[in-house]
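Our platform keeps sequence and structure together, in a single record for each protein. Because each token names a local backbone shape, the row as a whole describes the fold. One such record is reproduced below, unchanged from the form in which we store it:
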Amino acid sequence: MTTTTRSIDIRTEIPGPRSRAIVARREAAVPNGLYKAHQIAVESASGALVTDADGNTFIDFIGGIGVLNAGHCPPEVVAAIQAQAARLIHFSALVGTYESYVELCERINAAVPIAGPCKTILSNSGAEGVENAIKFARAATGRQAIVAFEGGYHGRTLMTLSLTSKTSFKKTFGPFAPEIYRAPFPAAYRMGLSEAEAVERCWDAFERLLVAGVGPEAIAAVIIEPVQGEGGFLPVPQEFLRRLREFCTRNGSLLIADEVQCGFGRTGTLFAIEQLGVEPDILVSAKSIAAGMPLAATTGRAAIMDKAHVGGVGGTYGGNPLACVAAIEVIRWMQQPGALGRAHQVGQAVRERAAEWQRTMPRIGDVRGLGAMIALELVKSPDTREPAPDEVLAVVKHCAEHGLLTMRAGLYANCLRLLMPLTISDEQLHEGLDVLEDALRAVLI
């Protein structure tokens, strides 16, 4: 598909001279361990467009790694932050109360797909939100063991890195927190099975874990992403999640939904788990909750959340007033007619184009996801399904040089993740997909 108007504006080589100079300063001042997907230095952004220090304008298919569902610098959010900054920048919920913290928690409590009275605590990042969920689960059950899944990503703090599966995030950083147990995730394509077969095989492994790994009576919680993020945009099969819910209810364990990346409208509902028909006990949200401001929310049944002792949870900056008013505006935007439906429209457009690509480029082994959270898995051969991480990096580089920002994902780093802002126009979306198509053909054919 060819667009008639262009948003991409490339004026220099990529990266340009100013970007190269700023990146060189970063490399001298910042540890090498902080990964960067691109060599550009960003100066400004609006909606789905990013402008670098050299005046080049890109279409953004990364969205700050799933943070910008509402787009870059939405005017209502900017205005709310500016007004709040003139009144109160910081106070700390540990010191006293400000209304924006309370209003945001009330809104989230009313929105989560959890029956009964709920309570929410705010923190700064998804990792903090997950840490809080583990604390509440342990306090409420009096147990210590947590079951997580292969391919899962939950953060990079000690506890959350212990929960995270991907070894490349973990090397040299051990020892890790104890009482973490890992079960296989039903990744049907990678397993070479149908979804139903993958569910049965992984459920057999889960039940074996309860005999050979950890006793059911020790399990405080099972934590799972309704759609795996870093793992490669893998939706949990509904039947597998149903069985987990049934196990937790029967066993007195809690089910924690990590919706840090897949929540807040990315999949077409406010939370992805709504589409799977399963109710968690605790839900963690972050990333797109506040349009780029650092904020996370841990929400659960009030009876669970009240089990932590006074002073046992909290943080100096958690629920900062600027972040709270930003999140309130994001929720208002997502509650407008058609806002969440845009994720389905974007996702359908991407899938239609990707289906065409697969017909002529069989090394696009799988296209999957939910709503506008979509990944393309690249392989060396459709027969062997051997991962092709180098090809993904080549596609990312080609895209950037032609005005499109993309990023890799997946347990084997062989997936292209697509997380464009939901505010992207149809013209910008297809212009970006044109660039992506050219990149895939240049690398895979």
User: Anything to note?
Assistant: Residues 341-360 form the longest helix (20 residues). The chain is about 40% helix and 15% strand. The longest strand covers residues 364-370.
